Task: structure prediction
Amino acid sequence: MEQVATLTEAQLNLQEAQDTSPTQVLITEELRKRLEVLEAERCHLATALSEQQQEVILLQKTLNERGAETETYAQNVVRLENELNTVVGERDRKLNELKAAVGSKEGLGLTDEELLQRVAHLRLHNEELERQYAASEARVKSLTSQHSQVEEEYQALKKSTTSMSSIDERVSAMQRALDEANYRVELAEQSSATALQQLESKNLELQSLQQRLLKLAKDHEEFQDKQMQLVTGLETEKRICVERMKRAEKKVERFEKESQAKSFQNPASPPSMSNGRGTPRTLTGGSTAYDSYDSQVNFLNSIIIDLHAKNADLEQRLRNAIEHPGGVGTGEKLGAKEEARKHAAKMRYWCDNCEVFDFHDTEQCQHEPTVARRSAVHKLARHVGPSSDRVYCENCGVFDRHTTAECTEDPQETF
Result:
């Protein structure tokens, strides 16, 4: 019963492990999917962060370039203003010289031609200066417009720099989201590794349970084979005991009929009887012959009683083996000595033709059954005559040799 219970428990554990395995597989698949989603989200955040950082670097570079251009334009404006002031001063100086020359014309006594030449020369020089002044004015206007444009761009870049803080905040937020995604990915990987370890342990446990189940199934088959062998042996012993009991009952009936027939015969012709050595001997009176037959009947009755007891014991053992299959081999071990002393009788040979124990079996007998043999008095063990007080050994199953206490045979050798 304990082996059957252990086998059932192993089957339940195996079924539970098999039921648990699909759940572990589903959990592993779900964790793998979550890990893939988190990995995709992390890659997206990393890409967005890289793009924002590149945009910030580009804006910073553009701002630096615009600042350098603004400084260059400012320097050019200052330089052109200085040149304009120089040209204006040169023109004023030339005008003053012209006025001085006109004023000194009278004092120098220059002719009109000379004066006209100098005026023409000064006019040409003045025109040249005016052209330079106009060009300088145009360049100043151009530089002023460029300066205003650069200033506007510079202000726009300043405004964009004010939005850099918001970009930095977005970058920081994206960085935190990226860190959180990495942390979640690590947690998912750890949980996935834990789930895989649990799945591997469950697989190992499942394999051990399968091996244990196979071993228990093999033990159960061996136990059933032993049980069948035991039941077959008990049934065989029971059949042998029943056959012997039937034979003994038939012999008792025959002896009773012969004794009754002999009691009505003439006591002058007493029947012959064999002694323990097999030589015939003659009884002296009818009462002696009747006592001899009576002793033989009692002997056979004792054998019948012993066979009945053995038959009842075999039936009880057979019922116990059928009703309690798990108890076979355990209860018998506890009371092995008691059962051996009560039912430890060896197999004895019996010849139906010679009607003698312990010599040979009926199949090995060389004599044919005759009426004379059947009417003869049965032979007992050697050197033993008819007696009412006979010793009997329960271990050996033999009369007139020794008692059970004096037996030297092993009581475990039972049939």
DSSP finds eight helices and six strands in the chain.
